[in-house]
Amino acid sequence: MKILIELPSWLGDSAMATPAIENLVNYYKNVEVTLIGSATSIQLLRHHPKVTKSFVLEKNFSNFYKTTKHLGNFNLFISFRGSWRSKILKFLISSEKKHQFNKKIYTDGHQVEKYNQFINTILNIGTRPAKLTLYSRAKTKNSNIKVLGINPGASYGSAKRWYPEKFAEVARELSINYDIVILGGDGEKEIATDIEKSLIIEGVTNFQNLANKTTIDELVSQINNLDLLITGDSGPMHLAAAFQIPTVAIFGPTKDNETAQWLNEKSLVVKKNLECQPCMRRSCPLGHHNCMKLVESSEVIEAIKALKLN
């Protein structure tokens, strides 16, 4: 059975698709999977034992077209994306059966459940989604010192970001018991630097700022070796769920019932429950950003205590 899977573009969405992918590949015997998607999603999931080939789908249409012509023939095509470009891909590729995710059909529940129901519908089964699964080649830390991860960014937009000085307050409070790693991608360099500066002013020295300094594999490795993660609603938050890393996630404009960590018993959400939440906007439409501004560092510290990690 040869299956072509187009992955979601975003890091977190790709992680949330893994239970659905596991259900799909476990349904068939002797399955060979080819992945196609963004560079981020391919790097995250290419280590799956059933994956034989993977292709990065370029935005340039000429490269996009050439890639589709080199894919070959398949028994089944599954796309977890609903974009117009994915519709073109669906038309161009050679497959006996073709299916594309439609967010207008799958509207209820967590995003993991939506993806899984998409696969259940295709296969006519009723399998429940299990935990997120990443086949990481991560290195295991050698030190006995506990490590706190600070992930201040969020690719979706500024409205999902908590404030650097508040992240720094939490990190300073925990620095006695944890070494600190600041994580993030290219878009998070500025906020990570602001946290770094605040820590230096407070005399905290046991930290590393790795924002925009890691590959996806290295990011996965770093998260897999954490003892605790403080984060916003973000891709790394979902990677932590895959490894069952204790997590406190700060939610503002997005729906935690749809995108909070999936099946992580050591995970708590901190949010304010304002009338304007969740607005699902990239920047605050009211101009005050109270859904994040009103979240205090003390609330995050209390959530960490509630996890009962000691």
Describe this structure in words.
- The chain has helices at 11-16, 18-27, 39-45, 61-69, 84-92, 111-123, 164-174, 189-201, 216-224, 235-242, 256-259, 290-293, 297-306; strands spanning 2-6, 32-37, 51-56, 73-79, 94-100, 147-151, 179-182, 207-209, 228-232, 247-250, 267-270.
- It has 310 residues and is of the alpha/beta class.
- It folds into two domains: 2-123, Rossmann fold, CATH 3.40.50.2000; 147-306, Rossmann fold (3-Layer(aba) Sandwich).
- A six-stranded parallel beta sheet has the order 8-7-6-9-10-11, sandwiched between helices. It has a five-stranded parallel beta sheet with strand order 3-2-1-4-5.
- Helix 7 packs across helix 8 (189-201) and helix 7 crosses helix 13.
- The longest helix has 13 residues, at 111-123.
- The relative contact order is 0.13.
- The mean pLDDT is 95.
Query: Which CATH architecture of the largest domain is right?
Result: 3-Layer(aba) Sandwich
For the record, what is the CATH homologous superfamily label of the largest domain? Glycogen Phosphorylase B
N-to-C series of helices and strands: EHHEHEHEHEHEHEHEHEHEHEHH
C-alpha-based Rg, rounded? 20 Å
Contiguous low-pLDDT stretches (5 residues minimum) are: none
Question: Which fold does the CATH topology of the largest domain refer to?
Answer: Rossmann fold
Coarse morphology: globular
Beta-strand share of residues: 15-25%
- What is the overall pLDDT average? 95
Total helical elements:
13
Helicity, as a percent range: 25-40%
Instruction: Write down how many β-strands occur, each being a DSSP E stretch of 2 or more residues.
Output: 11
The top-level CATH class of the largest domain is: Alpha Beta
User: Could you give the order of strands across the largest sheet?
Assistant: 8-7-6-9-10-11
Distance between the termini: 48 Å
Number of domains: 2
Structural class determined from secondary elements: alpha/beta
Summarize the biggest pleated sheet: 6 strands, parallel
